[in-house]
Amino acid sequence: MTDDDYRAIFEAIERTVIGEGPDAEVRRRALEGFHQPKLLEQGDDAIYRQLVMVTFYSGFRAATVTAKEHVILGHFPSVAVAAELTETDIARVLEDPAMIRNERKIRACVTNARQMRELAAKHGSFASYVRAACGPDAVGDVPFENVLMLAEDLQSRFEYLGEVTIYHLLTDLGLPVIKPDRVICRVLQRVEILSHESQLLRAILAGRRFSRVTGHSPRYVDRVIVALGQVKTEEFLIERGVCSKTNPQCGKCHVAPRCGHAQRSHAKA
Which CATH architecture has domain 3-37+178-264? Predict the structure, then answer.
């Protein structure tokens, strides 16, 4: 595919997600917020809280975790607090009926806080550690090999950062990657950028290319594609995603003329 193909596909996805009518401007404004990669600038506690959420999102339905965010972060508000939690404190968290009481994830949040504190002590801050790994412009045109090496290092140090969730964190930090989750890989496979949904690295590279040809941040690219394919996106007032796993609404999708899945479905009809 050419750069023009990538640009046309993403613009069609974006047009489908934003839609028309009174809610279109709400969606456009909500998406604009994802152009700003602010997390790396907000300090280690903000980064830690996102790491906590990524830990709980791993393997769980996103809506379930999002609904409990205030409870989860109430127990893990900062590096300093979480790093000092004792066995008694962990037991208290596990007894909270409002909490997602997964002991492995709860203990991982404590362990990860201690690891982040250790890195911050060595480098001045966790953000400084990230910048040292990526180069001075950590949210700009970072060489992909630097991102890969950072991802590998983080995975070796922190719990619950798997082959997908590590890129969830890096995307939120503002690094030039998208997270190759099941939704994004399904959409990219349907438009024949991927030949199979398991091609995670190719999905990340596709996200970088979408970003380059459109001028949008990778984080924005990520969120737009997710909104097209996930079941529901309340923040964008989307009650039902268009490119769902089953019964996709191809007739409502501007990408359909370029989508192999839509074309094959139409041929069978």
Answer: Orthogonal Bundle (1.10)
